[in-house]
C-alpha cells in the first residue's frame, strides 16, 4: 500500500478529455501560416467538404465555435421573440443560451432515465402554441430517439436543431449525425472528437438555411449577385441583416482537415475504451453503466457512471474527491442548466426535471479520449473498483 501511494505522486494527471495533435496536424497549420490566406481562404471550403463527404449531409457552414453554430442555426430557423425552444437540462449551457440569444425562451424537457437523452414524451408535454423548435442533444455521443422527435416535429410543425457537439461520427439507424433533422451543430473544442482549437460547424440538407448561416457568420453581408438589391460596381456588397463575425480562420480549418483524416481511428479508440470500462463495471452492483439504445452507434464523447447511492456509505462527492486525489480527472456533465444563478434569476426553479436532477446527484464522468493508453484505462478501472469496494454497504 505504501508504494502504491508513493507512486501516485509520480503518476501524471489524466484529464477527462483532451486533444491528439500529431506532426501532420502541425505541418498542415504551418503551411497555412506561410500561404496567402490566414482566414476565409481555400481551407474553409475544403474543411466543409470533408464534413459533408464524411456525413453525407448536403451543406456545411464552418463557424467560429459550437456555440456560434447553435446561434446561427436558431437565427436561420427564424426563432425569435415570443418563441419557445425545448431542450434538455443535462447539457452544456450553450444548448439553451442560443434560444436566449435570439430572444426566445428555453423550455426544459426531462431526460429518459435510461439513455440520459431528452425524453420525447416529456417534450410533447412541454409543447405550447409558442413552441417553435426542439434542440435535442446527443448526450455523451448517443443519438436521441430521433424517430419520435421527428414525428413530434411533423405533428406540431416544429424545427429540429440537433446539438451534435458530442456526436461527430455517431449513427442513428445507419445514418450519420448531421443528416437527420433540419440542422445539426458540432463543436471542435479540444475535448471533442476532432479539434480546431476553437471551432464549430452546422450541417444541413437545406440550401436556404445554409445560405442564411453563411451570411450570419459574416455580419449579414453578401456579395452574391442573385441576392443583391442593387449593384453599383464590382466593389459593391450589401449587409442585409444583423449578423456577427463568427468566421473560422484558415489556420483552424487546416487543422480540422488534418484531424478529419484521423476521426475514424479516434472513434474506434473511444469505442474500445468504452467497452473496456463497460466490461469492468457491468457486474458491480453499486454502479450503473451507460445504457445503449438499439440501432444507434454512440460517438462516445463522454463515459459516465451512475452511483447507486443507496448502496454506498458515502456520497458522490467523497467518491469524486477520492478519484481526483489519485490524479484521475473526473468531472460532472452536467449541472442541470436551470440550476445556474442566471437561469434562476430568469425564474427557473429546482424540481423542473426530476430525472435530470436525480442523475446529476449520482453521476461521475471518467476520463475517455483516444490518446489515453490502455494502462491509463486500467488505472482508472482499478481505482474505481477499489474505491467502490471500500465504500459499499
Ligand atoms: C462543447 C459543447 C457546446 C459548445 O461548443 P463550443 O465550441 O465550446 O462553443 C455546445 N453544446 C454541447 C452539448 C457541448 O458539449
Give the distance, in angstroms, between the N- and C-terminal Cα atoms: 23 Å
The CATH superfamily of the largest domain is Type I PLP-dependent aspartate aminotransferase-like (Major domain)
Structural class: alpha/beta
Q: CATH class of the largest domain, please?
A: Alpha Beta
CATH topology assignment of the largest domain: Aspartate Aminotransferase, domain 2
Can you give the mean pLDDT? 96
Can you tell me the residue ranges where pLDDT is under 50 for at least 5 consecutive residues? none
Q: What count of domains describes the coordinates?
A: 2
Molecular shape: globular
Can you count the beta strands? 15
Task: Give me the number of helical elements.
Answer: 14
Element order, helices and strands?
HHHEHEHEHEHEEEEEHEEHHEEEHHHEH
Short description:
By secondary structure, the chain is of the alpha/beta class. It is 39% helix and 14% strand. It folds into two domains: 23-260, 3-Layer(aba) Sandwich (Aspartate Aminotransferase, domain 2), CATH 3.40.640; 264-391, Alpha-Beta Complex (Aspartate Aminotransferase, domain 1), CATH 3.90.1150.10.
Amino acid at each position: 500500500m505504501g508504494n502504491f501511494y508513493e507512486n501516485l505522486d509520480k503518476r501524471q494527471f489524466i484529464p477527462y478529455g483532451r486533444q491528439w495533435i500529431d506532426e501532420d496536424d502541425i505541418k498542415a497549420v504551418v503551411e497555412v501560416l506561410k500561404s496567402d490566406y490566414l482566414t476565409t481562404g481555400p481551407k474553409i471550403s475544403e474543411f466543409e467538404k470533408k464534413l459533408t463527404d464524411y456525413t453525407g449531409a448536403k451543406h456545411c457552414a464552418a463557424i467560429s465555435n459550437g456555440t456560434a453554430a447553435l446561434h446561427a442555426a436558431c437565427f436561420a430557423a427564424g426563432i425569435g421573440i415570443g418563441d419557445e425552444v425545448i431542450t434538455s437540462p443535462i447539457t452544456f449551457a450553450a444548448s439553451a443560451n442560443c434560444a436566449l440569444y435570439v430572444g426566445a425562451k428555453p423550455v426544459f424537457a426531462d431526460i429518459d432515465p435510461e439513455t440520459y437523452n431528452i425524453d420525447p414524451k416529456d417534450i410533447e408535454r412541454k409543447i405550447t402554441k409558442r413552441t417553435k423548435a426542439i434542440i435535442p442533444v446527443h448526450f455523451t455521443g448517443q443519438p436521441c430517439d430521433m424517430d419520435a422527435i421527428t414525428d413530434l416535429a411533423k405533428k406540431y410543425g416544429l424545427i429540429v436543431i440537433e446539438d451534435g457537439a458530442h456526436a461527430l461520427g455517431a449513427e442513428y439507424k445507419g445514418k450519420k449525425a448531421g443528416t437527420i433533422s433540419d440542422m445539426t451543430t458540432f463543436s471542435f473544442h479540444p475535448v471533442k472528437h476532432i479539434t480546431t482549437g476553437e471551432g464549430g460547424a452546422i450541417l444541413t440538407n437545406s440550401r436556404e438555411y445554409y445560405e442564411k448561416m453563411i451570411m450570419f457568420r459574416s455580419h449579414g453581408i453578401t456579395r452574391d449577385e442573385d441576392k443583391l438589391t442593387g449593384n453599383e460596381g464590382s466593389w459593391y456588397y450589401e449587409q442585409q441583416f444583423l449578423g456577427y463575425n463568427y468566421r473560422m480562420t484558415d489556420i483552424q480549418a487546416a487543422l480540422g482537415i488534418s484531424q478529419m483524416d484521423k476521426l475514424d481511428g479516434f472513434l474506434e479508440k473511444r469505442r474500445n475504451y468504452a467497452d473496456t470500462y463497460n466490461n469492468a463495471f457491468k457486474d458491480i452492483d453499486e454502479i450503473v453503466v451507460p445504457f445503449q439504445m438499439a440501432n444507434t452507434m454512440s460517438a462516445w464523447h463522454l463515459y459516465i457512471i451512475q452511483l447507486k447511492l443507496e448502496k454506498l456509505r458515502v456520497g458522490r462527492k467523497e467518491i469524486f474527491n477520492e478519484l481526483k486525489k489519485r490524479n484521475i480527472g473526473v468531472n460532472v456533465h452536467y449541472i442541470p442548466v436551470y440550476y445556474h444563478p442566471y437561469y434562476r434569476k430568469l425564474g427557473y426553479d429546482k424540481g423542473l426535471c426530476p430525472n435530470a436532477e436525480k442523475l446529476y446527484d449520482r453521476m461521475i464522468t471518467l476520463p475517455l479520449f483516444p490518446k489515453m493508453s490502455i494502462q491509463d484505462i486500467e488505472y482508472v478501472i482499478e481505482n474505481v473498483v477499489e474505491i467502490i469496494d471500500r465504500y459499499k454497504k
